[in-house]
Amino acid sequence: MPRVEPRVLEGERGDELAVYSPAAMDGYVDRPEPIDERIERADGTRWIRTDVAGAVPNQP
């Protein structure tokens, strides 16, 4: 997907896929809690955890 960056973050259950996009949601309307536990800031970037285990393959 254009302008979507994947990254693997360490999680409690192992490595977890996270994504960044300038178009990523800020949260749910009137329900901040569910997304708050999914967001992690790393290296000045706001990453959204996907709860998907895995790794990002090397890209050419």
TrEMBL record:
Superkingdom of origin organism: Archaea
Full protein name: AMP-binding protein
Annotated source species: Natronorubrum aibiense
